[in-house]
Every structure is written in structure tokens, then in C-alpha cells.
């Protein structure tokens, strides 16, 4: 699977996807654009989360992990202390743990999830009709979460993240049934993005595969890194090579360990 980025959307072309995903790109072919594109994470639920943590830790960022357990039912807004979340359309939420379709052995999300069935094939209309929005007490610039029951129908089906209501960042694309069954052969993925051009108070996540069942949540990751620390060094062209998803791992002997908080709320 190849990922080609530009300043507005990331276009994913289908090929084989087998290993870890962390990619960086920019609008121009050259890496010398004035503002680097966000770093996108897309993989199975476990490897993707590990890669996200590794990148944040490598630049001494501040990382928080929150596993959703015992969330209240029927609320239009849920407060997690350091952040709150709601559906953009203010619909009531009924959290539950999701068992990944087709997974073997049977695999569940790490925590409870929220239903975000896409309301439209139009990106902005679906944002308004189905996105989940996170509002943080302290600004962040990195975010990731688990997604379930995706790639089961209604292709093409895309997944997006947006910081502060800005341009949608394409973090995943399914073109045919089952092409993104990445977690133990089941319908579950981890998606995330880091935009170190600044910091942001809100993050939205949604899909546009109208007609599909879609859930998100499980284990939420959010982070703050210094501006330019992730996209600035090394340069995107050096890191990307062929811009191939799964073409490189994030391991490095130079990785630095940062303190992070695991915030599991009962």
C-alpha cells in the first residue's frame, strides 16, 4: 500500500500491506515545502499504537493513553477529565466493546467504542453527520485511536482526522471488502496523526463509507510534541524513500524515552 500526501488530502493507492506503517510527506515532490504534512499512522491495532508511542517518545513528547472502560450510556457528552468527547451531531452515545469481525483468534478492541456510522459519502457532510469530536483541556498535536468493523462494505470508504476543524487528513482507505482486515485477520485498525505545525484544542475523527457500520475508540492516544520535532528531523524525503506504507519500521537506536502517563479510568 502506497501513501502519497499533499497539503489537503492523502491519497492511498492499493498494494500489499504487511508490516508497520508510519509515513511522512508533503505537497511538493521535494521535501522543502514551507510546511511539512502531518505524520500519519495506519496499521493493525497493536503495531500502529506501538509506532505512535515510539515516535512521540523519540522526541521526548508528552503522551497519554486512555483506555475506555465503564463509560456512561446514553450521554451526548462524556468527560474523561483531561478531555471530553461528543458526536458532532450531538447524538446520544452507547459505548460497548467491539469484537473484530473475521478475527482469528477472536479479538476485541482494547476498550469500549462509540458508533460513528458514516452519514454520507461526502467528506464534509459525513463530518457533520457522524464525526466524533474530542476537546482537550490542554492543547495537543498528536492523536490516535482504534477503529472497528471498517472495510466490511460500502467501498470506497475513507477515514479522516482533523485538528481544530481544519482540512481533513486521510488516514485510511478501503477499496474492496476485507482489504484492511489487519488485526488478526479481522476488521480492526489503529489510525493516528501528528501535526507538529502547532497545537490544537479539538480533534475530529470520522469516515465516509455511507451504509457501513463503524465504531471508534477503544484506547485513545493523545500527545504533545515540540513544533517541528517530528516532521523537521529527519527530512521527509530521507525518511520516506518510496513513500511506501509498511516499508519501514520506526525502531532506531537513537530513540529517546519520554515519560508518558497511562490513564486507565474505571
Notable traits:
mainly beta, globular, disordered C terminus, 266 residues, disordered N terminus, nine-stranded mixed β-sheet
Helix content: 10-25%
Give the assembly state of these chains. single chain
Low-confidence stretches: 1-34, 233-266
End-to-end C-alpha gap: 38 Å
How much strand? 35-45%
Q: In DSSP terms, counting alpha (H) and pi (I) runs of 4 or more, how many helices? A: 3
Cα-based radius of gyration, to the nearest Å: 17 Å
Principal-axes shape call: globular
Largest sheet: 9 strands, mixed
User: Which structural class do the helices and strands define?
Assistant: mainly beta
Average pLDDT score: 82
How many beta-strand runs? 17
H and E order: EEEEHEEEEEHEEEEEEEHE
Secondary-structure map:
Blueprint (H helix, E strand, L loop, with lengths): L1 E4 L4 E4 L8 E2 L15 E5 L1 H14 L3 E6 L9 E3 L3 E5 L8 E4 L8 E8 L7 H8 L1 E9 L1 E7 L8 E7 L5 E6 L13 E7 L5 E8 L7 E10 L11 H5 L19 E3 L4
Parallel strand pairs: 5-17
Antiparallel strand pairs: 1-2, 3-4, 4-14, 5-16, 6-7, 7-10, 8-9, 9-16, 10-15, 11-14, 11-16, 12-13, 12-15
How would you concisely characterize the structure shown here?
The chain has 266 residues and is mainly beta. It has helices at 45-58, 123-130, 236-240, and strands at 2-5, 10-13, 22-23, 39-43, 62-67, 77-79, 83-87, 96-99, 108-115, 132-140, 142-148, 157-163, 169-174, 188-194, 200-207, 215-224, 260-262.
Describe the fold and architecture.
Helix content is 10%, strand content 37%. The chain is mainly beta and 266 residues long. The strands form 3 sheets. Strands 3, 4, 5, 8, 9, 11, 14, 16 and 17 form a 9-stranded mixed β-sheet that branches. Strands 6-7-10-15-12-13 form a 6-stranded antiparallel β-sheet, with helices on one face. Strands 1-2 form a two-stranded antiparallel ribbon. Mean pLDDT is 82; it is low at 1-34 and 233-266.
